[in-house]
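Quick one, C-alpha cells below:
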C-alpha cells in the first residue's frame, strides 16, 4: 500500500465559532488534507490526512510536524497563537523481485550443454535475501538432464540486479520436444 490515512481531531474548547488553518509540511511525502476547518463552540472536527509515497520509497521511520492557528473567531479575523504537534510516519520494507531472460527458450541438441543467463532484480525498497531454485529440477534430472545453478542464495540491495547462470546438459539419447 502506497498511502495511508490518519485522523487528526481539532477541538474548540472556547465559547465562539472558530476557523483553524492547518499546516503540514510535506517532508518528501504527498499529503492531502483540508487546511481550513470551522469548529463550533465546544465542538470538534476530525480531519483525515492522507499520506502517500512513491513505489520505490526507501524504508524509513520519520516524524512529521503539524501546526494550527485560529484565523477567525465568530466570523471576524483573529490572530491567535499557533499550536502544533507531531505524528510518526513509517514506510515499511516490501519485497518485490523481477526475473528476466533475453532468451527464455533455446533449443539444445542431445548430449550438449547450454548456459542460460537470467537477470534477478530486487525491485523492493530494502536489502533482501533471495533463495533461487529450479522448480522442476528433479523431473529434469529423472529424465537424464543435468541442471546446475551458479548460486542458490543471493542478497541484493534495493534496485540491484545480478545475472545468474543456469547450466543445462541434455541427455545424449533424448530427442523429444517435451522441454
Amino acid at each position: 500500500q502506497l498511502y495511508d490515512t490518519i485522523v487528526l481531531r481539532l477541538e474548540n474548547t472556547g465559547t465562539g465559532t472558530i476557523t483553524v488553518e492547518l499546516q503540514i509540511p510535506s517532508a518528501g511525502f504527498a499529503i492531502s488534507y483540508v487546511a481550513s476547518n470551522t469548529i463550533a463552540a465546544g465542538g470538534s472536527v476530525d480531519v483525515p490526512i492522507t499520506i502517500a509515497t512513491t513505489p520505490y520509497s526507501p524504508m524509513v521511520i520519520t516524524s512529521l510536524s503539524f501546526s494550527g492557528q485560529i484565523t477567525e473567531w465568530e466570523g471576524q479575523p483573529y490572530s491567535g497563537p499557533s499550536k502544533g504537534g507531531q505524528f510518526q510516519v513509517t514506510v515499511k520494507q516490501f519485497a518485490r523481485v523481477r526475473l528476466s531472460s533475453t532468451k527464455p527458450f533455446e533449443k539444445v541438441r542431445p548430449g550438449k550443454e547450454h548456459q542460460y543467463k537470467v537477470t534477478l532484480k530486487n525491485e523492493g525498497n530494502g536489502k533482501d535475501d533471495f533463495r533461487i531454485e529450479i522448480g522442476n529440477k528433479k523431473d529434469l534430472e529423472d529424465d537424464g538432464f543435468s541442471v546446475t545453478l551458479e548460486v542458490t542464495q543471493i542478497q541484493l540491495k534495493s534496485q540491484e540486479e545480478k545475472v545468474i547462470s543456469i547450466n543445462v546438459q541434455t541427455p545424449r539419447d533424448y530427442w523429444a520436444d517435451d522441454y
